[in-house]
Amino acid sequence: MFAKAGIPDELRGNMTLFLRLVRKVLSEYDPSLRQSFDDLLTNTLLVHTQSSASPLSDGANSSDAVTATDTSTSSIQPPAPIEADFKKAVELIDSLPVEQATLLMRGFATYFHLANVCEENYRVHALHLREQAISSATLTYDPINDLTVAYRRLIDECGHAKAFSLLKRLEFHPVFTAHPTEARRRGVEGKIRRIAGLLKERPALGGASLAENERKMLQEIDAMFRTSPIGFKKPTPAEEADTILDIFDNTLFDMVPEVYRRFDDWELGDKAGTVPPVCPAFFHPGSWIGSDRDGNPNVTAKVSREVAEKFRRHILTALTQRTYYVGRNLTLDTLCTKPSDMLINLWNHQVEMSESMTSRAQTVSASELHRAVMIVMSYRLKATIDRTADLMYNTAEDFLNDLQVVQESLARAGALRAAYGPVQNLIWQVQSFGFHMVEMEFRQHSVVHERALADIREHGRRGERGELAPMTREVLDTFRAIGSIQRRNGVIAARRYIISFSQSAQNVADVYELARLAFAHEQDVPVLDVIPLFEQVEDLENAVNILDAMIRIPEVQKRMSQTNRRLEVMLGYSDSSKDAGPTSATLVLHAAQQAIARWAECNHIDLVLMHGRGGAVGRGGGPANRAVLAQPKGSVNCHFKLTEQGEVIFARYGDPTLARRHIESVAGATLLQSAPSIEEINTDTTHRYTQLAHDLDVYSRQRYLQLLNTKDFAEWFSIVTPLTEIGLMPIGSRPAKRGLGAQSLDDLRTIPWIFSWSQARTNLAAWYGLGSACQQINDLELLKQAYAEWPVFTTFIDNIEMSLSKTDASIAHMYLNLGNRKDLSKMVLDEMALTRKWVLAITNNSWPLEHRRVLGPVIRMRLPYVNALSLTQVRALAALREKSDKLTAEERERFIYLILCTVSGVAAGLQNTG
């Protein structure tokens, strides 16, 4: 199968290896299980091979395809040979006992985790090969490093001075969230990481070493298969924070200064590491984990304090160890590396602070003052962890000042490589992570604030006229927690407060009022940057009016005077997409950004837009660098901030090489977006295609709302997808519905909405309405031209093409039939067929991702395996829906567990959840 897939040799070889090992593990467990695995895979492969060869599978690549009037569901029915193999696969699944089917699905899910390891390994290998082909002697920039490419282009277009000033403004701010989109257990992640390490070692091995490598792989694969893919309980917010700690330890702490160093290596050439750096510390991670309380009753003020302390102790421990390591290696004696007067003063200050600490340092560094000073600094960091008042650093800036004294002393003494090598790396780490590791951002729903203030006005802020509601007390405690965190970790550690469903400037004023009411003394009120989050279409369209009123609030004016008129605004991609459909949401968000950017320029405001994007296309997902370059003029300003969650965190930051590539790519796009040529393209094309945008918005929204407003749609949706079962998965502390009362789709969070449709193999949330809009416009040449010229439309269509590549109409038909509503099933399948035809015609492809040399074949290779899981899932759902009243509690639990195993496997196979 892999030989025909058209995938690269190395990737194909590794996938073949893992398929062989999975089959071996299954055979050792139970030969009949391995036989079922082979039989089911054979049938789904036959279906896939025959359907790929059928013209009905993807539609013709011509204008005839999009102008054809027959888009009914009958056009997607498989031919007889395909139908026969499809039926065999279904019959095989139906013949298996639930327990056997569950083990079989765990086998397929295991393979997908290994396939993901293969792809990651190939991407890393491909990057290394590309880098090996680059000669630093003949090029002024690294063509593999998007950041150096962007900087050089800025220099060409703007001149060196302007480019350098833009570089100094550069900031990339990913915000890690605990949104429940990671369907993989953390216990499985450790095995995946160890297998990835074994695969990486493999090319250099032979003989007995190669055999031992394979034995270890089999050991890990066997353990993975035998490990339940479903956790036994939902994680607590404090446990969710371990995701960040894991990424920090394995990737971020050492990789981030490497990003800065790689830029300097190209920009400074032979001088790199011997002169002050050019690259600023532009990477500043944030977090909602343990602080996002919107709809999550498990996140309390106590939890926020606990998580903040966890982050503080972890980063300080890392800095303590690194400072001691760097210090111990500064074995430069005073004879050849004379300490500066400032370093001597620093040492004397350390002696005055603690003779015991300095005497310990002197015993190992008698004539090496730089070394002794650094070792004492590491002792002080340990005291900071323990909160020892007499010895601790009060702020990260204090520690940074001491580091800079050491660096300057080394540089003056001629030890340039020590000063701008290991010491500079440590400085970069402090500048990026401080004493807080991540900048915690608090979030709460605007209605909660309104209710809390009404409660306080009625009963008094201390309950003088009656007891305050528990939620009101919790809101006030939250502000006290923010104050406590700022005192311990610094203001930057917890200064942002985001208001969900912001609909007026009063929502912002409410937060400042509640913050004041939480404290007896005004000086204890924490510093707050209150950020409105515009999520629904109406609020996005009214954003400028709300912001205009917001900047008249005295507290906002005071804060802007302290930050050089910087103002953050957050845009929600999730709810706007569920509210009006993916096409309208994309265009409304683009228009809102353009309007907000113009407003900011008129008001001399340094605007930072935060993008509440998800991993899935239906939540604004897709390649972040391309999204940045498609933003309107003035909406980026060298700052890019977005949410990263679930499977996206592990995919983008799990491997150091891929994480470095991602950061360089996004940072390069963030810098390049300020180039005059990019600004001109975005401005001109947005103006040129204004009418097209209007028509796409109107027609797609009309079609989308027609579906959602069909009678009993919400109930049908919950039947034809595993929505209810997904809510049972222990993949996050956050409930699937908002706590303010969930009675309809309006109250359902967008993540389970998107996750459910992806499991049902329609990915409806990513594309519904686009096909009808294109049909109404009925101008293929115009749409092709827009795709070629208009960046936001290009990115949108490419993302939809990606989403469509993971759908399967025949399997989707089985899911939709569970609801016994032919009218709704027909609407969905007709729109899927229509959208597919138009997207293929616009992109000039015969099948989705045809022109993506690696990605297209890899996704098509995965589909037979995913189909085996999907078929099992839909049959289990059918049994659960149709026989619910006849099943015992135990039988019902077994079916639910089987479904959850398939959910985990499909998520791994499609590589997206919510």
Count of alpha/pi helices: 42
How many strands in all?
8
What is the subunit organization of this protein? single chain
Q: Which strand order spans the largest sheet, edge to edge or round the barrel?
A: 1-2-3-4-5-6-7-8
Low-confidence stretches: 55-62, 68-76, 615-621, 738-743
Give an overview in words.
This protein is mainly alpha-helical and 914 residues long. The chain is 65% helix and 5% strand. The protein contains 42 helices and eight strands. The chain has an eight-stranded parallel β-barrel, surrounded by seven helices. Strand 4, helix 21 and strand 5 form a beta-alpha-beta unit. The model is unreliable at 55-62, 68-76, 615-621 and 738-743 (pLDDT under 50).
How would you briefly describe this protein structure?
This protein is 65% helix and 5% strand. The chain is mostly helical. An eight-stranded parallel β-barrel has the order 1-2-3-4-5-6-7-8, surrounded by seven helices.
Task: Provide key terms for this protein.
914 residues; mainly alpha
What does the secondary structure layout of this molecule look like, with pairings?
Blueprint lengths: L8 H21 L1 H23 L9 H5 L12 H16 L2 H35 L13 H13 L1 H10 L1 E7 L8 H16 L5 H20 L10 H4 L1 H27 L17 E2 L13 H28 L12 H13 L1 H10 L4 H17 L10 H17 L3 H4 L2 H12 L5 E7 H14 L10 H20 L6 E5 L4 H13 L11 E6 L2 H5 L1 H8 L3 H9 L3 E7 H8 L1 H21 L3 E7 L11 H6 L9 E7 H8 L2 H17 L3 H13 L1 H19 L4 H8 L2 H4 L23 H10 L4 H4 L2 H8 L2 H10 L1 H14 L4 H8 L5 H22 L11 H28 L6 H22 L4
Parallel strand pairs: 1-2, 1-8, 2-3, 3-4, 4-5, 5-6, 6-7, 7-8
Helix pairs in contact: 1-2, 1-5, 1-9, 2-4, 2-5, 2-41, 4-41, 5-8, 5-9, 5-41, 5-42, 6-7, 6-29, 8-9, 11-18, 11-29, 12-15, 12-18, 12-20, 13-14, 13-15, 13-16, 14-15, 15-16, 16-18, 19-20, 19-21, 21-23, 23-26, 25-26, 26-31, 31-36, 36-40, 37-38, 37-40, 38-40, 39-40, 41-42
